[in-house]
Amino acid sequence: MGLHPVRYIHTVRELLRQHSKFFLLAALAGVALRLFLIFRFPGVTTDSFIYGDIAKNWLQHGIYGLSGGEVSPTYIRLPGYPAFLAAVFAIFGADHYRAVLFLQTFVDLGTCLLIADLARRLLSPRAAKMAFLLAAICPFLASYAAAALTETLEIFFTVLALDLALFGLNALHTCNLRVWLGCGLAVGAAILMRPDGGLLLITLVAYLFFSAIREQRTPDSAPSKRPEHLLLAALIVTLISLSPLVPWTWRNFRTFHRFQPLAPRYANEEDEFVPMGFNRWVKTWIADYSSVEEIYWPVPGSPIDPAKLPSRAFDSGQERDETIRLLADYNQLLHISPQLDARFEALAVRRIRNSPLRCYISLPLLRIADMWLRPRTEMFPCDTRWWEFNDDLQWSVLAVSLGAINLLYLLAGLAGLLRGKFLPHLGLLLLFVVLRSLFLGTLENPEPRYTLECYPVIIALASALFQKQLKKSS
After folding, report:
1. What are phi and psi of 44, to 5 degrees?
2. pLDDT category, 6, cuts 50, 70, 90?
3. Which run of H or E residues covers position 73?
4. Which of 1, 26, 378, 397 lies 20 to 30 Å (CA to CA) from residue 77?
5. Euclidean distance between CA atoms 437 and 341, whole angstroms
6. How far apart are CA 118 and CA 158, in angstroms?
């Protein structure tokens, strides 16, 4: 049983004062790592330019849209990250992505402090020190601070919401509405970055709701844990987190005459055809990120090499021949027509009917495992098929090293969890990790970056391993 946080008089500010040298050195190491990645491996991708185009048009023309012959309104991206880019461009100039990456470095250091506070609430100030260090030197958080993508801000708001939720749960007796208002705002900001930020809201509301039911069934429940306090917190978080979506939804209804509270699942424009049959076929066999890069992302516009398909994409020689014919027809057109998509759909339906357990259980679990365990090399010039060792020696070494580091973080988190001595509300963090992982298993594009929102929990758990060591040196 862990110590209750009211026994700790340490705040983050006091912790920084008492161990200023430690935090300064760890922060400098974190800044140095991020600056190295910004200058050596800056991540300005196609998605970055889409966000940037929206930001510039919003800033310069007052239209939330994409460039073409003229600026066309769009809803393919939520407004959170374009708003951030627009603010940066307004100050530093349009297309100043390096300024974006520098600012994200400091946001990411803020994330490190929030992770330290998570560890402080769950364990102790001693654990908070190691959690800060593990977060500061984490190459996976750092690599996305060096990328003009939503991850850094999404992770920041996610850990902020979780940290505030822990604070609120441990101080329900004060009925501090401001804590839950702040939690709701953080969740709302996460949703405005990416639609899957809604999983954070689902986690919080579900945990608060079931906690209220549990307390209702406990006759000797303490006054500080009355069910009505928990239900009020759930209501506040829900209303506040969803309120920023109201103007966005209204704008989409007025502009496009359709109810669109989030961005579309496939980031498609209003009149853009989505090959759902092809997507469904992909989900009957895809399990790893390499297939995302080699098969899923090239469609449409680039040819597909059938040799890149894994053996699990076929259940028989006849099915293999049919699949190769479908890909040959696609390669002639380099786009999927409704007729071709219907053929992919028929093949997908047949494969699902023949092996429902594979499609609904085995493959989702494999996709989850791949996203958690794969070397996180997507922001580096490493070969996607790193295990074949066909790359230059330096990139093969980097891929294996990143894989080993990722595995060490995960094993440390698991060992810290098994060690115990956490507060009861650790269940909130674990519920978030489980729900997010299960959701990711349903996607046809298993990208390792999608698990990064869970990394603050992994780091906080891992800090439990260093309790004794830090106790001796504190």
Report:
1. -110, 100
2. very low
3. strand 72-73
4. 378
5. 29
6. 12
Report how far Cα 92 is from the mean position of its chain's Cα atoms. Answer: 28
Q: Which residues contact 460 (CB under 8 A, 6 or more apart)?
A: 115, 118, 119, 122, 123, 127, 131, 429
> Looking at residues 64-85, what average pLDDT do you find?
95
Contact 9, 18 (CB under 8 A): no
The rounded Cα 173 to chain-centroid distance in angstroms is 32
Report domain extents, the chain: 151-193+195-262, 276-363
The dihedrals phi and psi of 147, each to the nearest 5 degrees, come to: -125, 135
Residue 403: exposure state from Cβ atoms within 10 A (0-12, 13-18, ≥19): middle
- Mean pLDDT of all residues in 158-167: 96
Quickly tell me which residue has 């070494």 as its tokens: 397
Q: Does residue 221 have a pLDDT over 60?
A: no
> Alpha carbon of 1 to those of 116, 246, 387, 423, 424: distances in Å?
20, 43, 43, 7, 8
Q: Name residues whose C-beta falls within 8 Å of residue 111's C-beta, 6 or more positions apart in sequence.
A: 135, 141, 152, 155, 156, 159, 456
pLDDT of 7 > 80? The answer is no
The H or E element that residue 65 is part of is: strand 65-66
- What integer is the mean pLDDT of 250-275? 92
Say which DSSP state 72 is in: E
User: Whats the size of the chain, residue-wise?
Assistant: 474
pLDDT in tens, 340-354: 999 999 999 999 999
d(CA 14, CA 20): 9
pTM: predicted TM-score of the whole model, two decimal places? 0.93
Q: What is the per-residue pLDDT across 375-418, written as a single tens digit (0 to 9) for each?
A: 999 999 999 999 989 889 999 999 999 999 999 999 999 999 99
Mean pLDDT (whole number) for 12-25: 86
| Mean confidence (pLDDT) of the chain | 91
CA atoms of 323 and 325, how far apart (whole Å): 5
pLDDT of residue 174: 54
- HSE-CB at 137 with a 13 A cutoff on CA atoms is 11
- Tokens in use for 135? 């977060």
Scan for tokens 């992909």, then name that residue. 282
| pLDDT in the model for residue 12 | 72
Tokens 């603010």: give the residue: 87
Whether the Cβ atoms of residue 150 and residue 81 lie closer than 8 Å to each other = yes
Long-range contacts formed by 206-209: CB under 8 A, 24+ apart: 206/431, 206/435, 207/427, 207/428, 207/431, 208/233, 208/234, 208/237, 209/234
Q: How far is CA 220 from CA 4, 213, 223, 309, in A?
A: 19, 14, 9, 60
